[in-house]
């Protein structure tokens, strides 16, 4: 994952280029996260002003959707499916295993900056076992051994 460093001028450019879109709030926020890896707090008033919204409205959108990050992610992002089907297939135990091994709770990044652990909600591969997403790669049939390999890869 390679994101641009936060830059106010670049953020303004992204916002200005998307204000004409239908439903621009989500479009802009996704584009900002795509560029910077997260939605910086400093961008909330910029988006609000550009779209003639209150800061509270923009903050509400950012905080409502779990896919928006408020902090820069680690070098790798590991998303474990937390949907009911994956939970029933052993996902809860894998979630506890990942939190324990990485030393962080969901929504946080390891102290060394290597991995951000995030929840995912239905990756569409839950027929036989839990699923995960490692950076942009979907991984099905997740078990402890496969999860350990992903975490080891992420911490290299």
Automatic annotation (TrEMBL):
<dbReference type="InterPro" id="IPR036249">
    <property type="entry name" value="Thioredoxin-like_sf"/>
</dbReference>
<dbReference type="GO" id="GO:0051537">
    <property type="term" value="F:2 iron, 2 sulfur cluster binding"/>
</dbReference>
<protein>
    <submittedName>
        <fullName>Formate dehydrogenase subunit gamma</fullName>
    </submittedName>
</protein>
<dbReference type="GO" id="GO:0046872">
    <property type="term" value="F:metal ion binding"/>
</dbReference>
<feature type="binding site">
    <location>
        <position position="86"/>
    </location>
    <ligand>
        <name>[2Fe-2S] cluster</name>
    </ligand>
</feature>
<keyword id="KW-0408">Iron</keyword>
<dbReference type="Pfam" id="PF01257">
    <property type="entry name" value="2Fe-2S_thioredx"/>
</dbReference>
<keyword id="KW-0411">Iron-sulfur</keyword>
<feature type="binding site">
    <location>
        <position position="126"/>
    </location>
    <ligand>
        <name>[2Fe-2S] cluster</name>
    </ligand>
</feature>
<comment type="similarity">
    <text>Belongs to the complex I 24 kDa subunit family.</text>
</comment>
<dbReference type="InterPro" id="IPR028431">
    <property type="entry name" value="NADP_DH_HndA-like"/>
</dbReference>
<dbReference type="InterPro" id="IPR002023">
    <property type="entry name" value="NuoE-like"/>
</dbReference>
<feature type="binding site">
    <location>
        <position position="81"/>
    </location>
    <ligand>
        <name>[2Fe-2S] cluster</name>
    </ligand>
</feature>
<dbReference type="GO" id="GO:0016491">
    <property type="term" value="F:oxidoreductase activity"/>
</dbReference>
<dbReference type="InterPro" id="IPR041921">
    <property type="entry name" value="NuoE_N"/>
</dbReference>
<keyword id="KW-0479">Metal-binding</keyword>
<keyword id="KW-0001">2Fe-2S</keyword>
<feature type="binding site">
    <location>
        <position position="122"/>
    </location>
    <ligand>
        <name>[2Fe-2S] cluster</name>
    </ligand>
</feature>
């Amino acid at each position: 994952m390679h994101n641009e460093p936060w830059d106010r001028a670049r953020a303004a450019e992204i916002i200005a280029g998307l204000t004409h879109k239908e439903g621009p709030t989500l479009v802009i926020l996704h584009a900002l996260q795509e560029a910077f890896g997260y939605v910086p707090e400093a961008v909330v008033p910029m988006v609000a002003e550009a779209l003639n919204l209150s800061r509270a409205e923009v903050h509400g959108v950012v905080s409502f959707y779990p896919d928006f990050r408020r902090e820069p992610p680690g070098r790798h992002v590991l998303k474990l499916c937390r949907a009911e089907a994956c939970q029933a297939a052993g996902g809860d135990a894998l979630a506890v295993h990942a939190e324990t091994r990485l030393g962080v709770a969901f929504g946080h990044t390891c102290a060394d900056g290597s991995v951000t652990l995030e929840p995912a909600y239905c990756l569409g591969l839950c027929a036989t076992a839990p699923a995960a997403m490692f950076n942009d790669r979907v991984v099905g049939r997740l078990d402890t051994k496969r999860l350990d390999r992903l975490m080891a890869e992420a911490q290299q």
